[in-house]
Hints:
Blueprint: H1 7-14, H2 18-29, H3 50-63, H4 71-82, H5 87-103, H6 105-121, H7 145-157, H8 162-168, H9 173-186, H10 209-221, H11 226-233, H12 237-250, H13 258-267, E1 272-278, H14 286-298, E2 304-311, H15 319-331, E3 336-345, E4 349-357, E5 362-368, E6 384-392, E7 395-403, H16 410-428, E8 436-442, H17 450-457, E9 461-462, H18 463-467, E10 485-491, E11 496-502, E12 513-518
Parallel strand pairs: 1-2, 7-8
Antiparallel strand pairs: 1-12, 2-4, 3-4, 5-6, 6-7, 8-10, 9-10, 11-12
Helix pairs in contact: 1-5, 3-6, 4-5, 5-6, 7-9, 10-12, 14-15, 16-17
Amino acid sequence: MDIRSHIAAIAAFLSPLIPYLLKADMEKAAKPGTKQKGAATIEEDYAPDVTTMEKARSLWDLIRPKLATNSSLKDAVNGLNLFPYDEDATSTLRFQLKIMTTQDEKLAIALSKAWGEVAQRGVSVNTSTELNTVRWADVLNREDDVIKRLEMIRLLRIGMDPIQIAQMFHTDIDYLYRVHSAFTLAGVNGIVSGSNIRHWLDNLNYNDPLLRRLEIIRLLRAGSPPEVIAREYNTTKEYIYRLNDRFTNNGYLGVLTEDDMIRYRQVNPPIIRICSFNLHGTHDSDAARFRRVANELSVFDPEVCAYQEVISGAGIEETSAQIARWMTNMTGNYYRTHYSYCHLYMERYPEGVAVSSRYELKNKQTINLNANLMGGLRPAMERYAAACEVEIYGRRVIFVSLHLDHHENSDIRLAQAQKLLEEINRLYGDESSYYCVALAGDFNDVENSPVISFLKDEGFIDTYRSIHPTGGNTFNTVDPFTRIDYIMVKGNIQKVHWAELILNNPQFSDHIGLYTVIE
């Protein structure tokens, strides 16, 4: 074995162990009860294991006798005793070993043999503090900033103490962790010169407990040793594993605490956002139209939506379901739909009404608004209402989408409203059994009409008018001249927070949409 090819490895192996070797020598030479002096202060918590010290001792016993006659070697050893991870100190030892083995052939042979035995047994050191071999960066440009950062990351990932790495590279621990996080997030691109070594939390609240938990999980899954993460976040490996298991089994819900839920409710009070929109049958550009409608609705993040003039059949996928699918993709909430057929649109397309919600739709019903109306009245076209119940904040909410008849006789719409309330009581129980009921849709009548007056007498609130004393025309979009679309609510309503007209675009529909927020 040519010792010259292994001088760098021997120096790198011995350098961090010099303080422990010198301390052991002094303890061996000292008389009982005497105080030891001369050895640098070292961290006993990071002391190398017995096997590592045995390997180092086999090399050190060959080098130590030279200290008495080689002042340069002695200076190199003293330097490492003070700065065991300093690059310059290691380089000095490496250079002195190179001179000694060149001048002393017997020493070269002995070191070569000893290193061969160490190598055969495996250069296994306590990786919480020491390098396990010559640094790969030694054969590259050690002044290159990116190479330095990569070496810092490598040392951190093999378990070296972060404080010692920071000392080696004359930096601080915060920068070390920032480099490590940038690398796990974006690879080499995250640490190249000019990349500003940014962290995904930089623009967020770094002390937010939930974000910190997510970062712990990300680092673990990116390959960071749990010991390193535990040091960075002042926690334990067991907690890190438990956090990761919870996230694996339950997603983000697994890492939420009761405090998180309290904070969430402070930011998101128990409100219900409701939308209603007449889709105006079918258009030539429906694919793009429904995506644009969904995009605008997603801005409001509604809990429930009511749709009228919904098409389902004749080769057309249910149009409210198309919007629900787009909204699911755009908001991350899963929107479901319940469609009720009414009649044919343009004597060809099956048209009806639908409700959509990001909560489970329970007790879905199609309510007949044609038969058994007051006074034997009959609508001009078959009409039904789509009804369901949803549980929001642990409370039962009844939601109905309706499209009342367009007959010139307003008593028909009044009769339909009366029939609707009777059926709601029959199907869902009286108002004491649920938190509130919301009727939304195209009422085909103005606000001073018999049907609107009846609903107000029954305790329903016209949400738009409760906020705005005037305005609110919803038909038609080109020149709105009348108000025929409403969201009416009744029950334990604490407050109507907001009510606005939305989706005011002739390319979407001939109706303007409605949006309201109730508490």
